[in-house]
Backbone:
């Protein structure tokens, strides 16, 4: 029986193509045909609450969590039980947001943007990297030849050179119509019609180096983006442009949270920077833990800050966001997302699924 090595097979195919000679039949153990996760619906699975989950959000009284291979699940009983939703892709999903109880958006790898209009029970695809590649290139190709547009056009060409695989890392909607998505290598897009159409905004942000944009949040009537090199960008709504502010931090911020008193930008190695003037000036805080801070929220009842990190810890702060203490979880894991149920409980996501954790010491 004749056997083939992978190197021999590739060599045979290449030589045959170059010389125009006949090629021996493919062996029966040839690798299966690649199936694009954009073309496959998420598989319905058992034990969904213990599978890797990467973000969670409130949808009115419900909770919706997203994770690997297109998994989206919904809880109507504050995280006690979860039901898997129908999802049209198997791409990994990284973030989810609901501006109201019905309308929500989830984003992730392969440039996927999903929408729900029934509170997360079912989802449809609005955009993916294959579609965006053509739409965004056409948008900048038809634009004026000003320097900002030219730079954005070049960035789009570089970003899609390897294919439509770049992920959207976060999503935020002001209401059911107006929203933003941000992602790797400076990718950013906006919609004003609920996601029916998306406009690239690479020419509308002070991000000349194409740094990663890791998170976007609306806080106190303002809109902020955080990313690499300690950058914070704030939307100038009048001029439709995100203006940058350097915080002095050289690493990456993965999120931003705020209340009426303070803004907190957080990220690698437990770093947290604080601003009390809406983001113009920033100061580094002394934190009680050095694990990467992955998500945060403001306790609506107590008004204080709650952060979680990759070591499975809660960091409970005061209302001013100046002082924090560590609260250990009952079942710690590498936390990726956080949604507060009330002032005493939260649902957290992580590499081991989704769990409800009771908080202590949050009423500072």
Residues:
């Amino acid at each position: 029986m004749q056997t083939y090595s992978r190197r021999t097979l590739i060599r045979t195919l290449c030589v045959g193509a170059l010389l125009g000679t006949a090629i021996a039949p493919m062996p029966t153990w040839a690798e299966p045909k690649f199936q694009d996760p954009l073309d496959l619906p998420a598989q319905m699975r058992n034990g969904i609450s213990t599978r890797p989950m990467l973000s969670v959000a409130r949808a009115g009284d419900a909770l919706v969590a997203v994770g690997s291979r297109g998994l989206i699940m919904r809880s109507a009983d504050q995280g006690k039980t979860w039901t898997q939703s129908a999802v049209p892709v198997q791409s990994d999903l990284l973030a989810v947001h609901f501006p109201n109880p019905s309308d929500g958006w989830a984003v992730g790898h392969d440039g996927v943007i999903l929408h729900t209009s029934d509170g997360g029970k079912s989802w449809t695809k609005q955009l993916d990297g294959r579609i965006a590649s053509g739409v965004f290139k056409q948008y900048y190709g038809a634009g004026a030849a000003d320097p900002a547009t030219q730079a954005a056009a070049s960035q789009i060409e570089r970003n899609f050179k390897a294919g439509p695989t770049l992920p959207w890392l976060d999503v935020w909607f002001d209401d059911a119509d107006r929203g933003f998505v941000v992602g790797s290598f400076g990718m950013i897009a906006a919609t004003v019609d609920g996601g029916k159409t998306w406009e690239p905004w690479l020419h509308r942000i002070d991000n000349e180096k194409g740094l990663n944009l890791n998170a976007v949040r609306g806080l106190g009537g303002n809109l902020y983006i955080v990313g690499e090199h300690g950058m914070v960008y704030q939307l100038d709504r009048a001029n439709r442009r995100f203006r940058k502010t350097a915080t002095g931090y050289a690493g990456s911020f993965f999120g931003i949270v705020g209340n009426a008193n303070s803004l907190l930008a957080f990220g690698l190695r437990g770093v947290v920077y604080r601003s009390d003037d809406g983001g113009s000036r920033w100061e580094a805080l002394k934190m009680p833990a050095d694990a990467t801070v992955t998500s945060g929220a403001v306790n609506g009842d107590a008004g204080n800050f709650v952060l979680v990190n990759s070591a499975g810890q809660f960091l409970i702060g005061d209302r001013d966001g100046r002082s924090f203490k560590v609260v250990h979880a009952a079942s710690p894991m590498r936390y990726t997302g956080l949604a507060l149920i009330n002032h005493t409980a939260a649902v957290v996501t992580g590499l081991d699924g989704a769990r409800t954790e009771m908080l202590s010491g949050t009423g500072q």
Observations:
- The chain is about 10% helix and 40% strand.
- The chain has one domain: 40-358.
